[in-house]
Amino acid sequence: MVLLASVLQLIMIPALSALSDRLGRRRVFMTGAIASAVWAVPFFMLLDTRDPWLMLLSLSVAVTFVSAMYGPQGAIAAELFPTLVRYSGASVACQISSILGGGFAPTVAVALFAATGNSLSIAIYVAGVCVVSF
Hints:
With 134 residues, the protein is mainly α. It has helices at residues 2-23, 25-48, 52-79, 86-102, 105-116, 120-133. The chain contains 6 helices and no strands.
C-alpha cells in the first residue's frame, strides 16, 4: 500500500510544486499543513480498519497533503537566506529540522501508543506537529 501511495506522491510533488509557483509557496504549504492536521484522525481510523483498500485510500490522501508541503519546501528554505549563504543555510536548516522533527517522531509515536493503547493519541500528535508546521 505504501508503494502504491508513493507512486501517487511521485506525481503529486512536481504537480503541487508547479501549483506553488502559481499560487504562492506559502499558501500551498500552509494548505498542505492544515489538510494534514485535519486528515490525521481519519488517516489512523482508516488504517485501523486493516482493510487494504481503505488503507490505500488513507495513504493516498495523506501523501497528497504531504506533497503539498514537500513540493514547495525546497524553494521556501532557499528563499529564507541571502544568495551568499543560501545553499549552506537551506541545507543546515533542512538537516537539523529533519533530525529534530522526524528523528524523534517514531519514538514519540511508540511511547504514545504504549501509554494509551490506541492510535488516536498518535493522530493528535501528528495533527499538533502539522499545526506547528503551519
